[in-house]
Specification:
The complex is a heterodimer of chains A (117) and B (113). Chain A has 117 residues and is mainly beta. Chain A is 0% helix and 56% strand. Chain B contains no helices and eleven strands. The chains are: A mainly beta (117), B mainly beta (113).
Chain lengths: 117, 113
């Protein structure tokens, strides 16, 4: 069975600070995908990034960066120079491969990020 | 490109009543998913379709929940009869295929009184 743990329930920082959201996953499958989604107060889940299990390269997109480490089963997300618009609930999710394709997502409980002006 | 559409956006019903939700995926997306998100938790997969066939419904409470995807496009999720614990947001997502990224609709917020 798959599991995603986001130990930080809520994080509050002041605008312009850097912040890292932690994600630890568990799976016995060798082929899997990791995701981050953002859920603003409006409720819609917004896709941020997808990473497959064979690609451990870190990725940077503007103020966002992701650190994938298979050795520690972690896929952490860092926001640099945070802004008030970054306030949302962030979910880490895992999808594993099975016959013919990947399964549905297993989500963590989410981290509520509050950016104070 | 239009996103995933869902309706209604909000629904309030009494327990033991029935309710149905509708989802229209992104055009051309073969895979469709229904998730249940209870307040304060991450979404939980209920059912996954590939075209009009069911791939995974292991977490769908089949005594009261049903879903179909006729013609491999739109999908409906039904609850009959509803219980108080069914109060949640029901999210529909779609992807080009089973290896592709899932994109989510705005959700239907259900309150069972």
């Amino acid at each position: 069975a798959q599991k995603v743990t986001q130990a930080q329930t809520e994080i509050s920082v002041v605008e312009k600070e850097d912040v890292t959201l932690d994600c630890v996953y568990e799976t016995r499958d060798t082929t899997y995908y990791l995701f981050w989604y953002k859920q603003p107060p409006s409720g819609e889940l917004v896709f941020l990034i997808r990473r497959n299990s064979f690609d451990e390269q870190n990725e940077i997109s503007g103020r966002y960066s992701w650190n994938f480490q298979k050795s520690t089963s972690s896929f952490n997300f860092t926001i640099t120079a945070s802004q008030v618009v970054d306030s949302a609930v962030y979910f880490c999710a895992l999808s594993v491969g099975s016959g013919g394709g990947a399964d549905g997502l297993t989500f963590g409980k989410g981290t509520h990020l509050i950016i104070q002006p | 490109e239009a996103g995933v559409a869902q309706s209604p956006r909000y629904k309030i019903i009494e327990k033991r009543q029935s309710v149905a939700f509708w989802c229209n995926p992104i055009s051309g997306h073969a895979t469709l998913y229904w998730y249940q998100q209870i307040l304060g938790q991450g979404p939980k997969l209920l059912i996954q379709f590939q075209n009009n066939g069911v791939v995974d419904d292991s977490q769908l409470p089949k005594d009261r929940f049903s879903a179909e995807r006729l013609k491999g496009v739109d999908s409906t999720l039904k609850i009959q009869p509803a219980k108080l614990e069914d109060s949640a947001v029901y999210l529909c997502a779609s992807s080009l295929g089973r290896w592709e990224t899932q994109y989510f609709g705005p959700g239907t917020r259900l309150l069972v009184l």
